[in-house]
Give the backbone structure.
Amino acid sequence: MPIPQENKHIYTVSQITLEIGVIFENTFGNGVWVEGEISNFKAATSGHFYFSLKDNASVLAAAMFVRANRELKFKLQDGIKVICFGKIDVYGPRGQYQMIVEKMEPKGIGARALAFEQLKEKLLKEGLFDAARKRELPFMPFRVGVVTSGAGAAIRDILGILKKGASCVDVVIRSVRVQGEGAAQEIAQGIEELNEFSKVDVIIVSRGGGSTEDLWSFNEEIVARAVYSSKIPVISAVGHQINTSLCDLVADCFVETPTAAAKIIVDKKNAIFAQLDGLRHEMGFSVSDIIGVLKNNLIALKNSVKSPLDRLHEKAQIIDDLSLGLNQNMRQFINITRERALALIHRLEALSPLAVLSRGYSLSMLMADESVIKSPAQIKKGDKVKTILSEGSFISSVEEVSNG
């Protein structure tokens, strides 16, 4: 049955679009927060941004005009997840609803990346990364402080390399957490405490490899400032090969792995021995040159001056005596220098904690917090204890505690 013409309410397309806009205004008039992934991003020549926000099921068209997007601190691109605030509107020419974005912030790792870049720029302006302020490492560090996890792979790598290549080096370990909440504060405190201790020649700040999130403690401002304030040269040895941490940028020297940090110490020890060998060869060449000059002078004197034969024999004997004496003095000097160096190395090896362990001693730590047990008051019956030997370790349970 046909509907009477007078009972029909006929809208134009523009009127429908306007009515839909009114509905959106009434529903989302105060603005709405929307989370999604950016796709189909385009930057118009006018400076306006056009893109879509999508999730697993839907797509929402969006626009961010130049007056709003000029405040963005990060670059928009397809694939990043964001949280946007704005209003839902209808674009009349296409009859399409869209979101007019007024504010935007990255979500998840994007927020961290933005925070990293902002902090990096701040510290750069303050001069924390300036090459001019970085210090040379000691000619030979005989005592090394290490800020890392006492139970991690990093400290095992460092101790293993030093034991093989520079057993004369003493190691002071400041055990800290290297990831998670509160780790950055512990790392900074460890650096400060080694500075207060002041009996180490260089500090290694280290941890094994991990994801960007695992390594994030080394991007915290408190760690960067602790490294900058250290009076003792700092080597950053965070186990990564792609990203550079703020700790790396501030440190006096940075390497990609804990093993590489230990090799720096070993290389310095080897350089000393190579220098001693070089000096020995130089001294030998110098003495030979002196002897050669004296012999040439003697020959010239013999050819130019007529003198009794016995006087020439006497001069020749003097030259031979000088040559013998110089060679003996050279050998004696080299032997004395080598003996002193070896004695110093033996003394340092005797003071090494590794040497103490090799003589039958051990180091015990509470499993609960990895603190070194120095007093019976620290433990109670039932506690789990990890004991480190010169080769390996074992875990035991406390049966009895005696204060005697």
